[in-house]
Design goal:
The chain has 179 residues and is mostly beta strands. The protein contains 2 helices and 10 strands; from the N terminus they run E-E-E-E-E-E-E-H-E-E-E-H. Bound molecules: zinc ion (ZN).
Length: 179
């Protein structure tokens, strides 16, 4: 990833196991650690239903408006910022992407590793997936972040084309939720 040590400009810098940079000339060490990220399944029960039913509930997907995976479907969420807890990061992303605050605290139900490639750099992430029931939520209730998202889809399980989901961890999370 780097041809020269950023401290002493030595060309002997090494990058071991995709994790640690080391320069033998000045003893520079840098760990390229995983990043924490969140995803949220917003579950919308069928109109008139009091209880959630995974066969008929709709799941809210975003249409990605930028790379990577532009045009593909994604769950709301994103990287946890410096200084944030994971729930705090999720609430911030839901507010930024959808202008929406969940009616109750989303519950963690799965976590998967993922690789997020941006401009040639691979970021290894630990994706944490939450679910929350949002009775009577409608597309018009959401105020989407137009620079990042081009639309929302409320899909029943039978309508989900898994080849159209942006990331393998999203596929894993949705399948895990539905089983
Ligand atoms: Zn150095």
């Amino acid at each position: 990833m780097f041809n020269y040590c950023p401290i002493c400009a030595s060309k002997k810098i090494s990058f071991k196991d995709g994790i640690v940079f080391n320069c033998p000339d000045c003893d520079f060490v840098y760990y390229h650690n995983i990043a924490a990220a969140t995803g949220c399944l917003i579950i919308v029960p069928e109109a008139g239903r009091k209880e959630s039913d995974k066969k008929t509930d709709r799941i809210v997907f975003l249409v990605r408006g930028k790379e990577p995976a532009i045009g593909k479907l994604d769950l709301p969420g994103g990287f946890v910022d410096i200084g944030e807890g994971v729930i705090e990061g999720l609430y911030r992303e839901l507010q930024e992407e959808l202008g929406w605050t969940p009616p109750e605290t989303p519950s963690l139900f799965a976590s998967f590793s993922n690789v997020y490639e941006y401009k040639g750099i691979k970021y290894n992430t630990c994706d944490m997936y939450f679910s929350v029931i949002a009775p009577s939520l409608k597309p018009d209730d959401l105020r989407i972040e137009e620079a990042e998202i081009t639309g929302v889809r409320f899909l029943k399980p039978e309508e989900i084309d898994f080849s159209q989901l942006a990331f393998s961890s999203t596929v894993n999370a949705v399948k895990k939720y539905l089983t």
